[in-house]
Amino acid sequence: MKLGKTKSNNKMYKPPFTLSTRTINLIAEISAQIERYAIRLEQEDGLLLRKINRIKTIQGSLAIEGNTLSVDLITDIIEGRNVIAPLREIQEVKNAIKTYNAFSSLNPYKVNDMLKAHAYMMEALIDNPGHFRRGGVGVFSGNKACILPHPLNAYLH
After folding, report:
1. Cα distance between residue 43 and residue 25, in whole Å
2. Helix 87-102 vs helix 21-64: crossing angle, to nearest 10
3. Mean per-residue pLDDT for 64-72?
């Protein structure tokens, strides 16, 4: 209903009730409660969405490297449940979780932080994680080298 002058009589509309200070305060309090509730719902949805995205990000990143664990198994690991799977793949998930949790404290432009992330990702998987490699590496298909990067010393100068 629109307050103000009506077309028919040019008089101000007067509702059949009066708004007391108490009524206005109660309306404001109800509005504030509704807003707090709406914000809480948005936060819970946001937290759930972030958790789902985090799990899918971890699963996708590890799948690229050959990890076969499903989103459900990764969820179980994150939630502290025991799973039956290859120990290496479970360790990879735990390491990815640890690395993911450390992201906010790492600077991607600092070599030491990159090495720290490497240490988190490779803990209990390789000898000497968190350090530059000492020997050559490559990507192979059977006995054939597909990718051979430049020697390490080419990056350190």
Report:
1. 27
2. 140
3. 96
- Neighbour tally for 44: CB within 10 Å: 10
Residue 147, H or E segment: strand 144-147
Is 118 within 8 Å of 106 (Cβ atoms)?
Answer: no
Residue 107 banded pLDDT, cuts 50, 70, 90: very high
Rounded percentage of the chain residues whose pLDDT exceeds 70? 91
Do residues 76 and 83 touch, judged by C-beta distance below 8 A?
A: yes
**Residue 93, number of CB atoms within 10 A of its CB:** 22
List the domain boundaries for the chain: 21-134+146-154
Query: Which of 85-88's residues contact partners 24+ apart within 8 Å by CB, and which partners?
Result: 88/125
Count of Cβ atoms closer than 10 Å to residue 81 Cβ:
9
Nearest residue to 73 (alpha-carbon basis) of 49, 97, 50: 97
pLDDT of 6: 55
pLDDT average, residue stretch 34-51 = 80
57 compared with 43, residue with greater pLDDT: 57
